[in-house]
Amino acid sequence: MSAATLHLLLAAAMFCIGLAGALCRRNAILVLIGIELMLNAANLNFLTFWKYGPQPQPLDGPVFVLFSVAIAAAEAAVGLALIIAIHRRYRTTQLEEISRLRG
Amino acid sequence: MENLAKNLWVIPLLPLLAATVGTFLPRRLHRVTAGLSVAALATAAILAAAAFLSVVRGGALYSNVPWFETGTLSVRVGWILDPLSAAMLLMITVVGTLIFIFSTGYMAEDPDSGRFFCFLSLFAAAMLGLILSNSLLLLFICWELVGLASYLLIGFWYSRPPAADAARKAFLTTRIGDLGFLVGLIWLYSESGTVLFYDQGAGCLEPAALSGIAGRATAGGLALGTAISLLLFCGAVGKSGQLPLHVWLPDAMEGPTPVSALIHAATMVAAGVFLMARMFPLVALGGSAELPAPALVVMAWTGALTALFGALTAVAQTDIKRILAYSTISQLGFMMMGLATGGPAVGMVHLLTHAFFKALLFLGAGSVIHGCHGEQDIRHLGGLRRRMPLTFATYAVGMMALSGVPVFFSGFWSKDAILHSLSHWAPSRVPFLLGVLTAAVTAFYMTRQMIYVFAGTSRGPDSAHAHEGSPVLTVPLGILAGASIALSAVTTPFRPWLEHFLSPASTPSESGSVWGILILSALACGAGLAAGGILYRNLGVALKTGRDPLERWVPRMYTLMRDRFRFDEFYRATLVKWVGAAAWISAALDQSLGSVFRDLASFAASAGSWLSRTVDQGVLNASFDDGCQAARDAGGLLSRTHDGQPQRSLRILIAGVIALAAGLLFLATS
Q: What is the ipTM, given to two decimal places?
């Protein structure tokens, strides 16, 4: 198995773990962690395709991933702030108890 | 030999593996986790001893490996094994193993002790990585990791609010210093182009890079080397509890006592001193014996003030662990002074001896607390001399080593070396006088503590039924006490093996002046012991009035010292208030700006709805309502899928994505 395949498998495993967390966890914070894990799996894929791709230009992949990490950090901050706001209002972070969007 | 340098990473890896495996073990197997942690660190101690012996025989070595490359930038990290790191390595693994063993007894009844040992092992791994790293970047990463472990362990009993607050306080306070460290690191990298310490002539601590930095000035006429050193010193101030960032260390005593012994006395808080010793070629750049580098002058003064402040505050505390915490602050000040005035060897020798006897004192305090069912107030203890004879004997050894009782105790010799280098310091004699005064006060507060805890008769229900702990608790105490005495064999000025090992270049001091300082230091210690003994000889009678004998003698000074010179109150009235005000302003802005936007949006929406209503009534007629009804029915059907459960929506989304991917795959293959 080539190094690229191994990296992609690792990323796929990370993505699946993150997905399972985001789908099955009840606590909003743990769902957020699952989402972060999926995002990082995507970043890892990005780097793998850059590194083992046909024409790896210096810095192409890492710069994109750095941007993605920076945006993910901002997103995590917003997500956590939302969770705190929700906790203040509903006194819970259990997702199934927060169902005001019911149609 | 070369293989040794390449495989140094095994030493930090062992405790890290123990921490990883322990994390996945179920909670009821906490004994297995504890055993794994002890075994991993004990193995690391054996490897460390082998590494130490090889350095004694053969000198320093290092090896660097590439970490990552992006474009033209290549970052390398490495491991270094020189006398400095070898001595630290041996000290940390040996003291750490003893404290781990002590913890298995101390934490035996805690159902969460598995988590405790995972954190302890994580800490040990990070600390070992810190001292072995040959790169300032790797050192910084480990530096932050030990900070994290310290946070986790201070807040180990996180359900108790004081512990959670203390953990946050420690994390935030040290972060202030670390910001300086990070800026200094980046600056050093941009100036020298490398973060490796030693790299065959190209490292940032080697002559080529140093001569590139020397002689250059920054804005305001500050030398470049001084500016970077002072920034790095900020990190050391935060980590090593120097004034004015010491406020977190006493509160850190909320953690379990073995943590206080390992992290907040013996190893982590000494990391700041170690950092300055490691960076010493840069810090001392451009100085001479008559005119030391400005960064060293700042360090010496900070250390002197911290030493005296810590000792004076320790005099008036009543919590057995807080006394030791302030004593640690004071001794860290001593180390900084020694480092700044006498070179890395002088400071590091005191660091090493202090690690043994302060770990001993903290574990002794832990044994007292364990024996007295959690009682920590020395006013309610007393008379433990007979009930806990082993603890008493070993604690007395630690107390005499810390006070600097002459000849047999390592603390005397290492403190004496610091006083000796202070007495020869050209810029000022004041730090020397402060040092002698601190030595006397140290003997005084340790006498006070000994009399409170061990002499007389018991003054509380818990100490009346005190009992000596199991051998798991007392054997580490005995070994540490033995080491506190034995270390004096290699630290005396007549045979300063350890000092020469740490810094082969240091010149032996003139023999004539050695005796003067020795006698002075012994006199200071004797004065402190005598004053403590006289003042507290009738403690039982004095305490009937509810006041400390010293409090009756100098009430105002005592109150000031008991309130820790009101540092916390000062910060609360200034910094905390300012941050609170900034947060309040932000919240108010958020509210008001938010409402402006809300008003705008609602105005736009109502204008739009007015327009649409006019158009609706004018253009569309009731026949459309039938269509609406049909749509509403369909919508009602669909709205059942919108049950407000975000995760169900997410599942539908994922199912869609998978269907899409399957479709694409099908199209691509067919």
A: 0.75
